[in-house]
Design brief:
Blueprint lengths: L7 E5 L4 H12 L3 E6 L14 E4 L5 H8 L5 E4 L6 H6 L1 H21 L4 E7 L22 H17 L9 E7 L1 E3 L12 H10 L4 E4 L5 E6 H11 L8 E5 L4 E3 H11 L9 E4 L14 H7 L7 H17 L4
Parallel strand pairs: 1-2, 1-4, 2-3, 4-5, 5-6, 6-10, 7-9, 8-12
Antiparallel strand pairs: 9-11
Helix pairs in contact: 1-7, 2-4, 4-5, 6-8, 6-10
The chain binds nicotinamide-adenine-dinucleotide (NAD).
The site of nicotinamide-adenine-dinucleotide has 28 residues, from helix 1, helix 4, strand 5 and strand 7.
Length: 326
């Protein structure tokens, strides 16, 4: 029997980049999947036809009640405002979606006695880490508004999971995801996803803009590896109550990323227009995950190397651009 048979999972943000890959994998495991998404950045065409879709907002208790009314075994809460830049442009929106939205989901879990909740946290909670690769035990030091709202939400999730007055066990897990990349990351959203931003620009023949000197590093982890962690954690009791990094442990500089994208299109930084600008508010200098906890608790390791993942992503991006589906 498939592991998901007879179980219903709500995926918030399931029409988005990461969420849609999680939905797809859940369906292959045999779960019934319900998606709650307001389509602010997600796209309904990314939802497999077997998923049940409720268009709604995690800030709306009514929309959440509709989603929970189907009877849920677990909630995968991925919906969020994912841009550091936008968190500065509209901090109240960022707070409303990321923190208040998560509180709404927690309240609904309590009301409906849903015993399992997985939450999309972020490596940004570490700020500029003292230790790199960074373990989960490193002290959080958020340095952007976005990181503050994500960290607050993560703490609400774990403090609620630890409450002894609920009358039932609410088993929570948070994934601090590093820089996720891959198919379906928006090529037109200038606010999130550095690889997809670069790809979109080269495909449209636009200049590439690098903030700072480009020597800042990121840990790029492939979206299908990330989706596998989410789905396999659902029934893994060792992950209950845990905060777990999802990354590769390998820092890649933004200049290296840019060169790889340009090379795939037959360019070099000398033959293509690359412009350097000042660093953005809240940008980190170095970032890489210590993934030993994910390995120990879940036997999870990324399987797709960056060199392969980037080829897959570029192939998808070219096709999307050719077919006008960007
Ligand atoms: N992409 C990354 O590298 C990364 C890293 C760490 C954490 N995260 C977190 O993972 C989650 C998914 O990120 P993503 O990269 O897939 O971005 P995304 O923008 O593609 O996905 C977010 C999804 O949430 C939906 N959404 C946004 N606001 C909503 C609301 N108020 N109500 C209901 N749905 C709403 C969007 O329509 C979209 O489908 C976010 O919470 C983000 O903060 C992403």
């Amino acid at each position: 029997m498939s592991p998901g048979a007879g179980k219903t999972i709500l995926v918030t943000g399931g029409a988005g980049f990461i969420g849609s890959h999680v939905v797809e994998l859940l369906l292959t495991y045999g779960y019934r999947v319900v998606v709650l998404d307001d389509l602010s950045t997600g796209r309904s065409e990314y939802l497999p036809s077997d998923a049940e879709f409720i268009q709604g907002d995690v800030r709306s208790k009514e929309d959440i009640a509709r989603a929970f009314s189907v009877g849920l075994d677990a909630v995968i809460h991925i919906a969020g405002q994912a841009s550091i830049k936008l968190s500065y442009n509209d901090p109240l929106h960022d707070l409303g979606v990321n923190t208040n939205g998560t509180l709404n989901i927690l309240n609904a879990c309590i009301t409906h006695r849903v015993k399992r909740l997985l939450f999309a946290s972020s490596m940004t909670v570490y700020g500029n880490p003292v230790v790199c690769p960074t373990p989960e035990s490193a002290p959080p030091d958020p340095v952007s508004y976005y990181a503050v709202t994500k960290y607050a939400a993560e703490r609400y999730v774990h403090l609620t999971g630890a409450r002894s007055d609920l009358g039932f066990p609410l088993n929570v897990t948070s994934f601090r995801m590093f820089n996720v990349y891959g198919e379906r990351q928006s090529l037109t959203n200038a606010y999130q996803g550095v690889l997809a931003i670069f790809l979109g620009r080269v495909l449209r023949g636009e200049e590439i803009v690098i903030h700072s000197d480009g020597e800042q590093s990121r840990d790029f982890v492939y979206v299908r590896d990330v989706a596998r962690a989410w789905v396999e954690a659902l029934d893994n009791r060792d992950t209950y109550g845990q905060v777990i990094n999802l990354g590769t442990g390998l820092p890649t500089s933004v200049n290296t990323l840019c060169n790889a994208v340009l090379a795939a299109f037959g360019h070099t930084p000398q033959t293509y227009h690359v412009r350097y600008q000042e660093a953005q508010l809240g940008d980190l200098r170095t970032s890489a995950a210590d993934t030993s906890k994910a390995k120990a608790l879940m036997r999870w390791e990324p399987m797709v190397r960056f060199e392969e993942g980037i080829v897959r992503t570029i192939d998808w991006a070219r096709k999307s651009m050719e077919t006008g589906k960007t």
